[in-house]
Amino acid sequence: MKPTSSPVTNDRSAGVPPAVTGASRPRFGEVKIRDRGRLPHWEKDNATYFITFRLADSLPKSVLERIESERQAIVKTAIGLRRDLSADERTRIARLSTPVIESFLDSGAGACDLQNSAIAEKVANALLHFDERRYRLFAWCVMPNHVHVVARLFPGQTLATVVHSWKSFSAKQANRILGRHGGFWQREYYDHLIRSEEEFERAIRYVTENPAKAKLKDWKWVGERDARPTAAEDGGATNGSAAK
Q1: Are 146 and 221 in contact (CB under 8 A)?
Q2: Who has the most CB within 10 Å: 45, 109, 170, 213?
């Protein structure tokens, strides 16, 4: 499953440099909870997230149905008691599928179109395109059937818009390479709002070590960078046009 061509040329994009250090560690504050689709999303202005999005065929239908069944059971309980979902119930919904999903993803479920180095490069380019303009990438990894990102959004940016730009641009490019049409990415994505230094370090390690964990040798589509302050840290980033 080793790519046959060189990765994107970028001094922050390939290999695994030293651990993330510096003055631009994420700051933590008030959190908003938004519901979009099947999963609740914890969001905060100028926040740092661990994000995972995956290919449309990367999970068996039976797994998705089990996740949905458990989600509906939790929601049904809250409705029966005529109350909103509790914080604990929202956490359970967000986390109930994670171990199962990660196991399937790392086992190489589905067609694994991201093994195609030309497609992996398009995805990497999508991630890097607005780096330091709309967000700061701390770590990223394009796996055979999914993508992990640790990124801090700059002021004025929303998680949904940023993820949509990654998926929309890369899906069009990938389908062109594959000579097909239709859905490329799973509609829903997973995100975790990072709220502590420990979570931050753990997320960075998880992303950069994922290829080795999945037994991918010499996997090139992984990047990490030293954290450092920029003008965008204080809202000085400029907004470029959206990737389409």
Answers
A1: no
A2: 170
The answer to whether the beta carbons of residues 42 and 33 sit under 8 Å apart is: yes
- Please state whether the predicted TM-score (pTM) of the whole model is above 0.90: no
- Residues in a beta bridge with 42: 33
Residue 69 has pLDDT above 60, yes or no: yes
Q: What is the CATH number of the domain that holds 212?
A: 3.30.70.1290
Residue 178 included in any domain: yes
Q: Which two tokens stand for residue 242?
A: 């959206």
- List the structure tokens of 160: 């949904």
Is residue 228 a contact partner of residue 23, using CB atoms and an 8 Å limit?
yes
Predicted confidence band of residue 188 (pLDDT cuts 50, 70, 90): confident
Per-residue pLDDT of 7-61, as tens digits, reads 443 333 333 322 332 324 444 444 444 444 444 444 556 789 999 898 987 566 6
Is 90 part of any domain?
no
Q: Which tokens belong to 211?
A: 């290829």
* Total domains, the chain: 1
Helix axes 61-80, 87-95, angle to 10 degrees: 170
Whether 165 is covered by a domain: the verdict is: yes
- Going across the sheet that includes 146-153, the strands are 190-193, 48-54, 146-153, 135-142, 222-224
Contact 162, 168 (CB under 8 A): no
186: containing domain: 32-58+111-229
